[in-house]
Design goal:
Aminopeptidase; 35% helix; binds manganese (II) ion; 494 residues; alpha/beta; binds zinc ion; nine-stranded mixed beta sheet; binds ligand BES
Length: 494
């Protein structure tokens, strides 16, 4: 979808539809008042009939108004409660739902005139673009006849008076870049696991490198063996598909500026291995590469935004399959760090591919390292589908990530990473085991990673609950690309 900003009079602009916010028979914003005036009070009369319920997000599509040039007017009810972040996003979603299946090709959206307490007009612009793009996204299905795309291609936003047109355009462009990255993440997450293979992820990274001028290198199995990535190799052992280790470098900052390193879990299918998962909903384990996909999406957004900083992406990717060559519970392997691991449960594979990638991260002398992974079912139980689990060995970094999540609406919530949680990982046969008991599964998983991240500032995002939706709306969400983008944008300020 294309976005433009305009300083326009909403009553006299030629458009297929003008969208205005109203509340209980009242015209709230300057745009709504302009329409009320131009239509000589028709709007209030219509509202008085009571066809628009006083619930935030309800809509009423009017086939034009006398005195108003637009061929349609969409009323969006704001509700009487003070506007929250979440309510504002609901309004944008409702607008999309009301218009997506109509013949409308372009829209003038004046919701951007609303004041959201605690947020400025840059936030409102960004959230409008991001929410509309999120709602407008369609899954690329593998069907014989492709679904006809929505007619709606262009959205004009009323330029806010508090910002110069140029500044406002900058915010819209950045939000578009974030949305493009999010779409890439969702596309990869939704792709079936026979197509979204480790090789496919590597090819996607290579293609991105060409398109966006990123340095891309991919290590193959032989490279991993040479380096001694025994933990990663143990996970891929049961699969016929070759593993890949993707390294992408974005150099937007000063040559000497230490990079932010992002590490994404790229299990393209997690059967559990010999510790096989139960059959119900196993198809959802194709989403076990959403950490990797979110890192790719973030790199794409970053390159399009041209942010002035250096970022390295590391993506260990393989399948976790049972088979004659598969790793057994009880096997002991040596990680890249030299520490040995007794693999007690082959279904705790994410931490195994991550630990080698986290050790590899050291060679970039990182400013900070953030890994992102659909790591534990326990995180879904703890935080549900609202927030990613956030753990870190550095309080400042943790706060930065939490704030980025809060601002972008792509939230993460802090969980403790105390040394006590490492106790359960003790092994009689190796430096550590890859699992502890049932309690605090999210924290013991992160504590395992903590053994490999002692040399730098590090944070871990467990996105098991937020990376995808189950049920009727099944599919990838593109989280936490928005969190990451805000985090990186903020690092350019400071
Ligand atoms: N990819 C899963 C985590 C997962 C489970 C994400 C369910 C979303 C929904 C991970 O590899 C895994 O299997 N974790 C195990 C760890 C356990 C064996 C210690 C889990 O959470 O059950
Ligand atoms: Mn697993
Ligand atoms: Zn997994």
């Amino acid at each position: 979808m294309e976005f433009t900003l305009k300083v326009a009079h909403p009553a006299s602009i030629k458009t297929a539809c003008v969208v205005i916010p109203v509340t209980e028979g009242r015209c709230l914003t300057p745009a709504a008042q302009a329409l009320e005036q131009a239509s000589e009070g028709q709007l209030t009369q219509i509202l008085k009939r009571g066809d628009l319920t006083a619930e935030a997000g309800k809509t009423l599509l009017l086939p034009g108004l006398k005195g108003v040039t637009a061929s349609r007017v969409l009323l969006v009810e704001v509700g009487s409660d003070p506007l929250k972040d979440r309510t504002y996003r609901t309004l944008v979603c409702s607008m999309e739902q009301a218009l997506a299946s109509t013949a409308v090709k372009e829209v003038l959206c004046t919701l951007t005139e609303l004041e959201v307490p605690g947020r400025d007009s840059a936030w409102v612009l960004e959230q409008t673009v991001l929410t509309l793009r999120e709602q407008h996204y369609r899954i690329q299905k593998q069907t014989q006849t492709p679904e006809s795309p929505s007619h709606w291609k262009k959205t004009t936003l009323l330029a806010p008076s508090s910002l110069s047109l140029k500044k406002a355009q900058g915010f819209v462009e950045q939000a578009q870049a974030v949305a493009n990255g999010t779409d890439l993440t969702r596309d990869l997450g939704n792709l079936p696991p026979n197509l979204c293979t480790p090789t496919h992820l590597a090819e996607t990274a290579q293609a991105m490198g060409k398109d966006w001028g990123l340095k891309v290198r991919v290590l193959d199995r032989a490279d991993m063996e040479k380096l001694g990535m025994g933990a990663l190799l143990a996970v891929t052992a049961g699969s016929h598909r070759p593993p890949q280790f993707i390294i992408m470098e974005y150099a937007g900052g000063k040559a000497k500026a230490k990079p932010v390193v992002l590490v994404g879990k790229g299990i393209t299918f997690d059967t559990g291995g010999i510790s096989l998962k139960p059959a119900p909903e196993m198809d959802e384990m194709k989403f076990d590469m959403c950490g990797a996909a979110s890192v790719l999406g973030t790199m794409r957004a970053l390159a399009e935004m041209k942010l002035p900083l250096n970022v390295v992406a590391l993506i260990p990717t393989c399948e976790n399959m049972p088979g004659g060559g598969a790793t057994r519970p009880g096997d002991v392997v040596k990680s890249l760090s030299g520490q040995t691991i007794e693999i007690l449960n082959t279904d705790a594979e994410g931490r195994l591919i991550l630990c080698d990638a986290l050790t590899y991260a050291e060679r970039f002398e990182p400013a900070v390292v953030v890994d992102v992974a659909t790591l534990t079912g326990a995180c879904v139980i703890a935080l549900g589908h609202e927030a990613a689990g956030l753990m870190a060995n550095d309080e400042v970094l943790r706060n930065e990530l939490q704030a980025a999540g809060d601002y972008s609406g792509d939230r993460a919530w802090p969980l403790p990473l105390w040394e006590e949680y490492q106790e359960g990982l003790k092994s009689n046969f190796a430096d550590m085991a890859n699992v502890a008991g049932r309690p605090a599964g999210t924290l013991t998983a992160a504590s395992f990673l903590a053994y490999y991240t002692k040399r730098y500032r590090w944070a871990h995002l467990d996105i098991a609950g937020v990376a995808w939706r189950s049920g009727k709306e099944k599919g990838a969400t593109g989280r936490p690309v928005r969190l990451f983008c805000r985090f990186l944008q903020q690092r350019c300020q400071g």
